[in-house]
Amino acid sequence: MTERQERFRWLYREHHGEVHRYVARRLARAADVDDVVAEVFTVMWRRINDVPVAPEALPWLYGVARRVLANEFRRLERRATVVDDAALDEAVESDHADDVLDRLVAIAAFATLGADDREVLRLVAWENLSSTQVAVVLGCLRTTAAMRVRRARRRLLAAMAVVDRPHDGSQRVGTKGAR
After folding, report:
1. Which residue in 36, 75, 101, 155 has the most C-beta neighbors within 10 A?
2. Where does the RNA polymerase sigma factor 70 region 4 type domain start and stop, copy by copy (predicted)?
């Protein structure tokens, strides 16, 4: 077995689970998830010499996954079967009304953000990445990534401040305050 094959096998074994979870949180259909993950590792095989050494290999793979997902979303849009943040559409059930209401407000506010802000916040919250790792995924400087995270958080907080909190459990974006 060649060194290239050994490196691929090691990277695949080491990071397949994380990449699969990253993709699965963004797509609804399991068949689509498997296809995207396969494409990510196909790109890794073709560019094996470009893959950084640990610990930067995983953020590099997330960056590849992000671009493959962008292509997948464009394909889905062309077929008019867009998946619109399936993870955010899940039903929320709890005996704690205030917790449920807070979650609904956060979901409604999150949905008002632009796609770039949502992705940056997902990288930090779902993938638990640092600003340095977010920079690798986005292909920008660490300071730029940190600024994007900070601005996205501010926009989320501002959006949460204008979401009405009705007593009937529904949510809607109101006009309280200015953005």
Report:
1. 36
2. 108-156
Written as six digits, the tokens of 67 are 């671009």
Q: What is the DSSP string of 68-137?
A: HHHHHHHHHHHTT-----GGGGS----S-HHHHHHHHHHHHHHHHS-HHHHHHHHHHHTS---HHHHHHH
DSSP symbol at 168? T
CATH code of the domain containing 46: 1.10.1740.10
3-state secondary structure 7-31: HHHHHHHHHHHHHHHHHHCCCCCHH
Sign of CA dihedral 20, 44, 119, 34: negative
When divided into structural domains, the chain yields a total of 2
Q: What is the pLDDT of residue 105?
A: 83
List C-alpha distances in Å: 63 to 43, 134, 158, 168: 11, 9, 28, 41
Cα distances (Å, whole numbers) of residue 49 to 4, 43, 116: 8, 11, 29
Domain that holds residue 50: 1-83
